[in-house]
Amino acid sequence: MITQKMKYALKALLVLGDESRRDTPSALTIEEIARRSGTPKRFLEHILLEVRNAGVIASTRGRSGGYSLIKRPGEVPISELLRLIDGPIAPLPCLSRTAYQRCEDCADEASCRIRKVFAEVFWSYLLLIESLTLEDMLRSDQVAAQVIGA
């Protein structure tokens, strides 16, 4: 399950992604991102700082300043954002690629039935989530709007 913080990050990035597709994209203020995404401004400040430090967005100061996407949406993997915002995405520490730890109560990983069952499910999930990008989410939003008539 993703956290509320991750949902806010995705909503903000979708707004920035939509803006990046315009003929003349502009940097958006945090107030504008909050308004368009329906996200509280006080949460966005910290989230956008983390995403900026990861090199996905940039911030500029001044009258026409704000935040903008500096990577193409297709170059922003959702799995990296999940790890950035929420931490490891594996259901067990012994399955994590980025934060591996042996389970304290496990005598033998090779014969652990809990690990085996969750590994099968997790690898399927991981294949899907690692192939998903911000571009896919932007396209998904447009398709959903056409289907529901928004």
Structural overview:
There is one protein chain. The chain is mainly α and 150 residues long. The protein has a domain at 1-76: Winged helix-like DNA-binding domain superfamily/Winged helix DNA-binding domain (Arc Repressor Mutant, subunit A). Helix content is 54%, strand content 5%. It has helices at residues 4-20, 30-37, 41-53, 78-86, 113-131, 134-148; strands spanning 57-60, 66-69. The protein has a two-stranded antiparallel sheet with strand order 1-2. Helix 1 (4-20) crosses helix 2 (30-37) and helix 1 crosses helix 4. The radius of gyration is 18 Å and the shape is elongated.
Q: What attributes characterize this protein structure?
A:
WH_DNA-bd_sf; 6 helices; elongated; WH-like_DNA-bd_sf; mainly alpha; Rrf2 family transcriptional regulator; disordered C terminus; two-stranded antiparallel sheet; DNA-binding; about 150 residues
Structure in a nutshell:
InterPro entries: Tscrpt_reg_Rrf2, WH-like_DNA-bd_sf, WH_DNA-bd_sf. With 150 residues, this protein is mainly alpha-helical. It has helices at 4-20, 30-37, 41-53, 78-86, 113-131, 134-148, and strands spanning 57-60, 66-69.
